[in-house]
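Throughout this review, each integer encodes one residue's backbone shape. One record appears below.

===
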Amino acid sequence: MIFNNLNLLARFLLQCTYIYVATMKKILFSLILFLSLVSCRKDIPLDIDNSPETMEELQVPSSFDWKTTKDVQLTLTGNANGIVQVTSLNGVSYQKAFLSSNQAYIMKLTVPSYEKTVRLLFLGQQVTLELTANNLTYQF
């Protein structure tokens, strides 16, 4: 009786092992098949680069001025003595100057050509000034 039970147990374990191995083979085969199908890609031709190789081949519009900076003349007047600071909106300081009370101060400011606005800081005041012309005036 004990031998029959052991025999049945051995057959059961052997059958479970066969089922486990067969299942693992199916999973491994499916994984290899999936990876082989996914990894196959068509070669897509790259765009042909039509960039000029010399400066003579470069075509530039006549309106392009090649400048990376622009000059702006600011006339600033303060209602009290103090230091004015001109910065970008990101906080990059372009210039500082001392303003005397009720006296105009003319500042030549050179900023990057992409800059459209500057920030003026004077005695705790923050003013955003748009660079719409080459000569600008502001009174605090």
Notes: The radius of gyration is 39 Å. Residues 88 and 119 are 6 Å apart (CA to CA). The chain has a mean pLDDT of 85. DSSP finds one helix and seven strands in the chain.
